């Protein structure tokens, strides 16, 4: 299809072919009624995923009021139509989603962009910035650090815009095709500090080039490093269930019950 598209761009159109047909009023409300309950999705996998397997699997995983209907639109690209808006919103808000460990990118319905022009290269992940000085744990600092990785959607802070914790958590729209940043160097009063970055729910990524979009066996980047000198590793994955230890009593208590004895000791001393 892409090749055909390139051919058309070189065509010399006759008068009839070149006269634009205005489709502005043609059936848009009907499509929108369906589109409003739909998401456009892509599973980032090298192998072809069948419509039936993904439909059946996700019906079990999502536990919707009624199973969603999948329409195959290309290699691993599906439009997912939900029975209700509530089902759609619940699935959308649970990003990132995965299918068999592969990134399952979902986008809001867009009736204007042809599918071959649509990008599925972005994914929303919670990112943790570790080792920050206390002055660095603010909404503003989170936005500054996060925007150097992608588009910031949310910074996890308290009502006073301060996010004191073991790390600052920022929800960011990241480009899957860019290597994962391993950390940033910050300066505060002239003092340089290395801020390690960890990514939550980072299942599969390429240990060779640090991109989420493929695994090592699908990597096309030339092998430059010996395995013993890898620049990327599983240490980029945040520990599952990374709660913040914040000052509010509810969060504090629930965190304490889940923390290790060592962390408990530290926390008690902190109070
Ligand atoms: Zn790679």
The DSSP helix count reads: 8
What is the averaged pLDDT score? 83
How much of the sequence is in beta strands?
15-25%
Number of strands: 10
Content-based structural category? alpha+beta
Major sheet summary line: 5 strands, antiparallel
Features:
five-stranded antiparallel sheet; DUF4283; alpha+beta; disordered C terminus; 8 helices; Alpha-Beta Plaits; Zn_knuckle_CX2CX4HX4C; At4g02000-like; 10 strands; globular; 2 domains; binds zinc ion
In short:
By secondary structure, the protein is an alpha+beta fold. The protein has helices at 2-9, 15-18, 28-35, 51-62, 85-93, 139-147, 249-258, 261-270; strands at 38-43, 69-74, 77-81, 97-99, 102-108, 122-130, 151-155, 167-175, 183-188, 191-199.
Textual characterization of the structure:
The chain is an alpha+beta fold and 271 residues long. It has two domains: 2-17 and 26-117, RRM (RNA recognition motif) domain (Alpha-Beta Plaits), CATH 3.30.70.330; 122-239, no CATH class. 26% of the residues lie in helices and 24% in strands. The strands form two sheets. A five-stranded antiparallel sheet has the order 2-3-1-5-4, with helices on one face. Strands 7-8-6-10-9 form a five-stranded antiparallel sheet, covered by helices on one side. A hairpin with a 2-residue loop joins strand 4 (97-99) and strand 5. The radius of gyration is 23 Å and the shape is globular. It binds zinc ion.
